[in-house]
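Continuing the series of single-chain predictions for the mutant panel. This is the parent chain; the variants come on the following pages.
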Amino acid sequence: MNCKNCKKELLEESDYCNKCGAKIIRNRLTPKILIQQVNEEFWTVDNKFALTFIALFKKPESVINGYINGTRKRYIGVIPYYALALTVLGFQYFLLQNVFVDFFTSQTNALLENLPENQEIPNFNNLLVESMDKMNDYISIVTSITVPFWALGTWLTFIDKSKHNYTEHLVINLYANAQILLITFVLIILFAIIGFSDFLTASLLTTPLVIGYTSYIFKRIHKISYFNALIRFLGAFFIYLIAFSIISILIVLVIVIYAFATGKF
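Parent structure:
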């Protein structure tokens, strides 16, 4: 008998592969077995998702430094965890676009109400709204694009406090962003359920969560005071805003040029 994952030869009585650690599966899939596997992966107390989610609150340095230093069995790796968070984000926007429609469209309505009509470019406001809708359709990609800018900011502001390189700062920020996406999913859906009328305001209310929680992570990783970590992260936030704003302006310019070229203006 060979391991179905790494192909190593196994003893017949083996329950786990002694090379890759995979569990030996002998039975065909049935609804009962499928439910048991889902339960083992996501809902049991000792599953990796629960351990990772809880540890990123209680001792984030254990998860993040462990991954950076090569300890990657106990917790979910950074890429799978971030991918899971993006899946949850996609589900959030599916619910907002199809279930809590009034709550979701409030951001578009607020934008149209507060934007004066551009007399020189009459269709500019509509194009801007269309661009927002497109961004919502590709929200996972848009969200992922922001992470390198967060990493740039934290790498520059914490460069004297650790030996983490830029790639390792990417890991830190991927874990932090994934955790924030999971938390904000609960908050945004809760706001929608209780009838909170403004999606844009609800989204902005999560900004203190981003700043507060990520500062807490860097406090734990670098063993500095929370105030020190907060000040540094606010500096990182400022760098992120500058870098991302420049990229966003360039994207808008491309959209406008494309609109002129295709005759939408």
